[in-house]
Amino acid sequence: MPKRTTATPSAHPLAVVLRPLVVDVGVPLAVNYVLHSVLGFSPVVALLLSSVLPAVRTVAGLLRERRINGAAGLMLLVNAAGISLSLVSGDARLAVAKDGALSSVIGIAMVCSVFAGQPMVSTGLKPVLTKGEPAKVAAWERLSVGSARFRRAEKGFTLVWGLALLGECAARVVGAYTLPVSSMAWLSTVFLLGAFVVAFIAGAPFHNRIEKLVDAEARTVFEADVETAAALSAAAEHRPTLSAT
Q: pTM of this prediction?
């Protein structure tokens, strides 16, 4: 009697796509929050401990794939900047100005990733546009390797966000030393929201281009598979059969 096997349910495609983002960004942020806000650790200690996982992931990526894990590396940079800023003391204006340094770290990392040929947009945008659908995920992977137009759109979208964050940092620093501190208490939030709005608007053409390319690639492969299946089916119908003698 044949042995009965039970199928192991596979993970949902969206969960597979989002897992690296959750591990590289979500977990370190959660660890930092719990250590500092819940358990009462100092900001420096909380940042140091929450940097362990991004550091391990970054080193593992370099050793295993010979490339930098973008999200983990970014979290490592942000935490390092946060540790450095925690050690800086000064007047209220300096406190306002240094809060913009984290935006500049992320912005600089994004701009550098463009010139390094590894635009960081993929980490955040890929799950949104592919929705975890295997056909679209595969289309994204093919385009990221073989389509110059797709790569230009990726770089353009990443560059827009990087420059927007650098602009937010510059505006915050200028405002910190030219405007009343009381005004900057609420203007800092306005600057950050303004940077997001600018990035969304300026990045929309690149976003739309990436989405259209992914959809077109997935559709092309699907239609090719349908045609291949139809051709095989037609060939099978016309194949001569051997009669028993």
A: 0.71
Number of helices (H), then strands (E), belonging to the chain: the values are 11, 0
Rounded CA gap, 122 and 127, in Å?
Answer: 8
How far is CA 224 from its chain centroid? Answer: 31
Q: What are phi and psi of 239, to 5 degrees?
A: -75, 130
* Per-residue pLDDT of the chain in tens (245 residues, 90 and over written 9): 444 444 444 455 556 556 766 777 778 888 888 888 888 888 788 888 888 888 888 888 777 767 766 677 777 777 787 777 777 766 778 777 777 777 888 888 889 989 988 888 777 788 888 888 889 989 999 999 889 999 999 999 999 999 999 999 999 889 988 988 888 878 888 898 899 999 999 999 999 999 999 999 999 877 776 667 666 666 666 665 555 44
- What secondary structure does DSSP assign to 53-87, as a single string? HHHHHHHHHHHHHSS--HHHHHHHHHHHHHHHHHT
CA angle 145, 148, 149 (to 5 degrees): 120
